[in-house]
Amino acid sequence: MSRLKARFAALKAKNQAAFITYIQAGDPNRAGSMEILAGLPAAGADIVELGMPFTDPAADGPAIDKAAQRALKAGATTQQTFEMVREFRQTDKQTPIVLMGYFNPVYHYGLEAFCTDAADAGIDGLIIVDLPPEEDAELRGPAAKAGIDVIRLATPTSDEARLPTILEGASGFIYYVAVAGITGDKSAAASDIGQSVSRIKSHTDLPVAVGFGIRTPEQAGAVAAVADGAVVGTAIVEKIAAGSHEDGTFSRKSLQEVLDFTRKLADGVRAGRQ
Amino acid sequence: MTRNSFRTGPDERGHFGIFGGRYVSETLMPLVLDVEAEYAKAIKDPSFLAELDDLNTHYIGRPSPLYYAERLTEHLGGAKIYFKREELNHTGAHKINHAIGQVLLAKRMGKTRVIAETGAGQHGVATATVAARFGLKCTVFMGAVDMERQKPNVFRMKLLGAEVKPVTSGSATLKDAMNDALRDWVTNVHDTFYIIGTVAGPHPYPMMVRDFQSIIGRETREQILEREGRLPDTLVACIGGGSNAIGLFHPFLDDTDVRMIAVEAAGHGIETDKSAASIASGKPGVLHGNRTYLLQDADGQILEAHSISAGLDYPGIGPEHSWLHEEGRVKYVPATDHEALEAFQLCTQTEGIIPALESSHAIAEVMKIAPSLPKDHLIVLNLSGRGDKDIFTVAQALGEEI
What we know:
The complex is a heterodimer of chains A (274) and B (402). Chain A is of the alpha/beta class and 274 residues long. Chain A has a single domain (3-271), classed as Aldolase class I (TIM Barrel, Alpha-Beta Barrel), CATH 3.20.20.70. Chain A is built from 12 helices and 9 strands. A 9-stranded parallel beta sheet of chain A has the order 5-4-3-2-1-9-8-7-6. Helix content of chain B is 42%, strand content 17%. Chain B has helices at 29-42, 46-60, 70-76, 95-108, 122-134, 144-149, 151-159, 174-187, 205-213, 215-228, 243-249, 278-281, 319-327, 337-351, 357-369, 391-397; strands at residues 15-16, 19-23, 66-68, 80-84, 113-118, 137-143, 163-167, 192-194, 234-239, 259-265, 283-287, 289-294, 331-335, 378-382. Chain B has a 6-stranded mixed beta sheet, sandwiched between helices. Chain B has a 4-stranded antiparallel beta sheet with strand order 1-2-12-11. A 4-stranded parallel beta sheet of chain B has the order 7-6-5-8, sandwiched between helices. In chain B, helix 4 (95-108) runs parallel beside helix 5 (122-134), helix 5 runs parallel beside helix 7 (151-159) and helix 9 packs across helix 11 (243-249).
């Protein structure tokens, strides 16, 4: 069984939603990012989304855009992202890691090689935000061969006519983008999210995780009450930005603050189902 | 070459060979599919075509003249040079051709707001113009660096009632403006139409913008037949994204005797890291909704482009051009900032026409090839825009104070 499947099944058995944390690989630098990544599971993260830095993240808001620029400036590469996951896997064999990013660096790496190397490093899934179902066949083949899920996105603009296209061939889980917009912008009402999640779940047995606009433990809890997972990205990335110094260094204290905040969010997710 | 036609692309999924496609976030997909469906209906609707035709004639001032550049021809001493005078269009460039077409589609789709990205400001001005003409709200995204070097156009857009949003991310030029336009579009899908300024972006944009721009080539064909009784030997156009080049070339793609040259901006030279020549220095990749040649590093990160001309300062090129390059139908050559500046001055002094710095790249190529061609060799150069907007940049480059 894949790590993603096992993790969602185990949480479901405990009537818990997955708390999914997003950070950019290499933000603010490799060492700092590695410490955050390694600390996330103990701080309550059930699944880690690891952003692949890209120069032109057109689906992201300013916080994640800046995180990508910080990481790139500090020398982040695709190879480095794989190395970080490999290092993480030395001590954590269970927590699923999903890479999230844009298609060009993946395409440039070579699709076969990317999937093979990603699987070898211990990566479980890929979310490529600018690769809609119409274009993702060339990635899904190599990913399936390597045992990696290609996670599809559903959005408020995914109507009944569109959903079957999204769900056809989907695996891992469905990522429901709760607002029509960029990351870190607006928040959707929990009742709207609940309705949308039920609508998607009436078409698929895959878990549905919700992201975009979840910034506080309370919001995370409200989403956890109606979905199989809650994703927090921008709010964590902003904490990392606040703890990063101009010279690119990242202190113990900053690390602690990021992980403390993550723990509060995790508590919010758990509280949402009680 | 055994291909029957170069004019049948793209396929129904928007691909020109491996290029093109629809690489956008899922939130945008339904809208992109809507644009495609509405466009397919519109171009078969006689009332849409009649309105477009009427505006082309009475608002833009089409057809634009095909002008024999006599003194430039004499000066270079070889091929006979014609200018397709797109700079005489309303707003001073070819960009109005696709802005009019797209705003009619936006109106048809019930959208109340249009957005655009702009580099030199010509597409921004064209979009602000048609938004004013049709009473739509308009926001134009423009790199902060470009706003500085194209001040007259910034003010023009403001006068036309558009909001000009400075873009400070990345290199603060055209590619970053396009990122911000996409961010705005995904946030305002319900009421907003994105008027893309070149033959790039997700399908159907490269095809749609090409169709609206092809009027350049269709007119040229009629005009040269009338003037010379035959088709031209060589077509030359500058290329950033490639809207004016495809507009001139497309109606001639199956005329195998017509040679076509597209001139990329080479900045300080293609051997340097200050260039915007995606075909000469790039590799296939995916950005801004399509697969095409892109300037990128060894890790697939997009590189900043450089050109003296803000309108060519983009690290990619339209997907149909990538395909025409690989098919060998169109030749893509570079011209440097320096060569464009020389061409700018020569055109101004011999013809009394101040060309845009973008178009000056095409003139630079004509300066290289015309002298050694026979006098009965016909060149048509697309004079895609006028250069009034560039006089500050040129003055600075020449060390003059104005």
